[in-house]
Amino acid sequence: MYQVVRKLFLTDCQCAEDASTKYEDLFAKLDTNKDGKVDVSELKAGLAAMGIKTGKGAAQKIVSSGDQDKDEGLDFNEFSKYLKEHEKKLRLTFKSLDKNNDGRIDFMEIKQSLAELGMEITKEDAEKILKSIDVDGTMTVDWNEWREHFLFNPATNLQDIIRYWKHTTVLDIGDSLAIPDEFTEEEKTTGMWWKQLSAGAMAGAVSRTGTAPLDRMKVFMQVHSSKSNKISLVSGFKQMLKEGGVTSLWRGNGVNVLKIAPETAIKFMAYEQYKKLLSSEPGKVQTHERFMAGSMAGATAQTAIYPMEVMKTRLTLRKTGQYSGMFDCAKKIMKKEGVKAFYKGYIPNILGIIPYAGIDLAVYESLKNLWLSHYAKDTANPGVLVLLGCGTISSTCGQLASYPLALIRTRMQAQASVEGSEQMPMSRMVKKILEKEGFFGLYRGILPNFMKVIPAVSISYVVYEYMRSGLGIQK
């Protein structure tokens, strides 16, 4: 493969005419029906025939990026312009990786560059990435090898190339305890960060709305279900439908969606500040520093929006006619219980951030390293399914660990609104649940909670992809 492409046009050429001739030769090879245009199927088939591996959807992205007249194909001018522009970007990336300017990239330079972007990898993982690009077996990558590997890959910079494995919070499974996204300096200066946050927020809003009935059922079971009052999924939904009709299944969803925007913004800003405070070296964030900064940012955001969490629980559990809306709910809580009521369950909620964020991050890193060590042969790109799977498993493990604290928080938030319920602090409530219902009493409502994970992840991913293309975020 390397020899074919290098022979065609990857040798270092001194003049523009020579490069143009090379592009013409390659274009002629790809334009199999000789209509003066290379379409997606010709590009795919031609590259495969030359032994050039491309990622899924790469041919489509190349044609879409270079197709200026929107005729679903690239003429020679468009084709050569795309390759020239793409090469320029690849050259800049190569230079940014080549720290000692010796014209070659070694595994330490890859490791260092990823560390600067907040992604710690082992020496073995860095060598695996290097091997997937290195053709001549020298365990270093020169410019020609780098260009050959990425020329027909739409990834244009280091951020694109390693973004596959950045732990993302796009997967909204209804809980707000995950560590925030990492953004590179380039994304911050170009304003791409707010587009990504907006796309994520919209994905979260649609995902939460789609799974709201299961979320309401979870809260309902957390508060009302016990050994003496067993509530199954079917009986619970019947009860809700009988009491308030179909629309009652979405009670509390409005405030649950509304809190996404302020929480995301506060968490992002706080995370950036905490990273600066905690990082031992400017610009470099170790995994444990990232965990601490993420947990502190989560705690800051939760503190700011916690009254909305309390209102969400109250509105979710309300009976028909109890509150006319969010403001009425806030007014009645204030009048009857005072300001303190807006922070009921705050301590178990903050304590829940540590096991959630820690286990989520640890499981994700373990799964990432497992995949890289066993399956990363030709590329470091694991594909959508593997990334979704890793994100879902790590988030679910985090939820499982912090679930008892989430249940205590919900019961404390709901105390005053549940008839005949005794007002008690966290320690007494835990003791009472363990005495009356045993250890599994702390996991009431876990079934609907897990049932909503896969639909929530699927909805948020699909919406996020649509939002990305709508906002012009490059993949």
Number of strands: 2
The parts where pLDDT drops under 50 for at least 5 residues are 1-16, 167-171
CATH first level of the largest domain: Mainly Alpha
Count structural domains: 2
Q: Biggest sheet, in brief?
A: 2 strands, antiparallel
CATH fold-level label of the largest domain: Mitochondrial carrier fold
Oligomer state equals: single chain
Q: Give helix and strand order, one letter per element, not per position.
A: HHHHHEHHEHHHHHHHHHHHHHHH
Instruction: Give the spatial strand order of the biggest sheet.
Output: 1-2
Which architecture of the largest domain would the CATH scheme give at its second level?
Alpha/alpha barrel
Nearest-angstrom radius of gyration? 27 Å
Nearest-integer average pLDDT: 80
CATH superfamily of the largest domain: Mitochondrial carrier domain
- Helix fraction? 55-70%
Percent in strands: under 5%
Protein name: Solute carrier family 25 member 24
Domain EF-hand: 18-53, 85-120, 121-156
GO molecular function: antiporter activity; calcium ion binding
Subcellular location: Mitochondrion inner membrane
Q: Can you give keywords for this protein?
A:
2 domains, mainly alpha, mitochondrion, Recoverin, domain 1, two-stranded antiparallel ribbon, disordered N terminus, 22 helices, 2 strands, Mitochondrial carrier fold, 475 residues
